[in-house]
Automatic annotation (TrEMBL):
One of its GO terms (molecular function) is metal ion binding. This is Formate dehydrogenase subunit gamma. Its cofactor is [2Fe-2S] cluster. Belongs to the complex I 24 kDa subunit family. The keyword Ubl conjugation does not apply. [2Fe-2S] cluster binds at residues 84, 89, 125, 129. InterPro entries: NADP_DH_HndA-like, NuoE-like, NuoE_N, Thioredoxin-like_sf. Binds 1 [2Fe-2S] cluster. NCBIfam families: PRK05988.1. Keywords: 2Fe-2S, Iron, Iron-sulfur, Metal-binding. It comes from Amycolatopsis alkalitolerans.
Length: 161
């Protein structure tokens, strides 16, 4: 369990966040973003509370959380790494880059390193197709990322985070 969703402070905060956005159309998305910003993830244990507060089904909440890759059910690492695996990047070595990253970090896509320094994820197009393979690290997009460039970017980004 990533956070203690049953404790009063978490419940109170979730209710306060819901109250802040409840009147907006499509309130669930901004609520989920706010929860992730505050707690680092959208813990599974928060789903029933959100469903009850918004008078929607747990399945509806869970469906939105799992549809959008931005939402995590566990806190991510301090450095967020997303490697593009869409077609244009695949044509210029994205899969080799993914294999290198998994091997170098000792994790699979979707996982966080044991020291919680890096979360490795995939993404499907960063809008940087002409400069593939593309990667996004802590929100910054990098192009022509071969394994050695990825190592260099990660060394710089992890030192800064
Ligand atoms: S296909 Fe990789 S950035 Fe578009």
């Amino acid at each position: 369990m990533a956070i203690e969703a049953s404790g009063p402070p978490v419940i109170d905060r979730v209710r306060a966040i819901v109250a802040e956005y409840r009147s907006e159309r499509g309130a669930l998305l901004p609520i989920l973003h706010a929860i992730q910003a505050e707690f680092g993830c959208v813990d599974h244990e928060i789903v029933p509370l959100l469903a009850a507060e918004l008078n929607i089904s747990r399945a509806d909440v869970h469906g939105v959380v799992s549809f959008y890759s931005d939402f995590r059910s566990e806190p991510g690492g301090r450095t967020d790494v997303r490697l593009c695996r869409a077609e244009a990047c695949q044509a210029v070595g994205a899969e080799q880059l993914v294999a290198h990253a998994e091997q170098a970090l000792g994790v699979k896509l979707g996982q966080t390193t044991a020291d919680r320094s890096i979360t490795l994820n995939q993404v499907f197009c960063l809008g940087n197709c002409a400069l593939g393979p593309a990667a996004q690290v802590n929100g910054r997009v990098y192009g022509r990322v071969d394994p050695s460039r990825l190592d260099t970017v990660l060394a710089t980004e992890t030192a800064a985070s």
